[in-house]
Amino acid sequence: MSYVTHLECAKCRHTYSSSEVYNLCACGGPLLVRYDLGRVKAAVTKEALAGRVASMWRYREFLPVEDDSNIVSLGEGMTPLLKTPRLGKAIGIEDLWVKDEGMNPTGTFKSRGAATGMSKVKEFGLKTVAMPTAGNAGGAWSAYAARAGVEMVVVMPVDAPAITMKECYAYGARTYLVKGLISDAGKIVGKAVKKYGYFDASTLKEPYRIEGKKTMGLEILEQFGWEVPDAILYPTGGGVGLIGIWKALDELEEMGWIGSKRPKLISVQAKGCMPIVKAWNEGKEASEFFQGAHTLAGGVRVPKALGDFIVLKACRETGGTAIAVSDEDILKGTFLASRDEGMFICPEGGAAVAAAQQLRQSGFLGAHERVVILNTGSGLKYPEIIDVDLPILEIDEEI
């Protein structure tokens, strides 16, 4: 069973029935899932979680699926939260941790949103789902669509990682490339949705992806014994994960599982595509379309996020910030984590490492604060970021 009461617009607060299929509010705002948290509190305790399945579905009461038979899962969630002393020493933060989302079934945190999103697609009996993607979301939704027996249509930029294109194809998705950005892919998907009636699974254009991403926040808190860390750095493209973590914290406080303390939520972007950082620096409540977006970290190359105003609000209300780093620093951060901790993180995670280092140098982050870096995916999905000529030995040659 589900403890969902309704859907609520993040902009105008208009409410909708959770028993019907919706994408956006009539005002264009994204819809958020709301729960009867009093009933959730009565149904589950912190202690009861310990003996449950080691996946995000251990938080069943916090998730929107009505009937367990509709759950579409590949074992996503409960990823490692690892203390990283050598990386922390290099950065200057002694209590540094990395939440490694690269351990999810499809190699990135996108597995979480795809699991809840596709579970609701199955529950509603929808037949075809379409989405634009920078790569990893398309791969994840294609995998879960295959698991659910649902047709998937994916449109991605022609310069998206080749491995994710092949991933979508392998899962049987109808996969198309566009000579442009994810925003251009979105326009093509929008036309197809109107023409053919596909369900639009674009970022925040359906209410349920965020609920899967929310479980990252639940896990971090449970893994820390329900103690709130001082800061969480999140690589931000669409920003759904950061919004989800913020939502999880609010729900946990309302249930009395945590107090009013919040981690400083820090939105990390690339200098080649920094609409949220630009809006933050200018004191604006929403971003503008970022022209000429470019960065090697494709997951944050989103020139205009639908939920940008929520990301900015979350950072503001938690005493966080928004910061952009260069592609050069992104690569340095990626290799620093790999070589100091044996964690081959994705370039988006590398951006968060670089941001943590710069924020420590500026004094925004303290040397003794508990800081969590969200590594959103495995570096194995980005072989193109390593360009090296290795020495070739003769058979009898010594090293």
Q: Can you describe this structure?
A:
- By secondary structure, the protein is α/β, with parallel strands linked by helices.
- It has a domain at about 80-110 and about 210-385: Rossmann fold.
- It is built from 13 helices and 13 strands.
- It has helices spanning about 35-45, 45-50, 85-90, 110-125, 135-150, 160-170, 180-195, 210-225, 240-255, 275-280, 310-315, 325-340, 345-360, and strands spanning about 5-10, 15, 30-35, 80-85, 95-100, 130, 150-155, 175-180, 200, 230-235, 265-270, 320-325, 370-375.
- Strands 4-5-13-10-11-12 form a six-stranded mixed β-sheet, with helices on both faces. Strands 8-7-6-9 form a four-stranded parallel β-sheet, sandwiched between helices.
- Helix 3 runs antiparallel to helix 12 (about 325-340), helix 4 (about 110-125) crosses helix 8 and helix 12 (about 325-340) crosses helix 13.
- The longest helix has 16 residues, at about 240-255.
- It is globular.
- It starts with a strand and ends in a 24-residue tail after the last strand.
- The model has no long low-confidence stretch (mean pLDDT about 95).
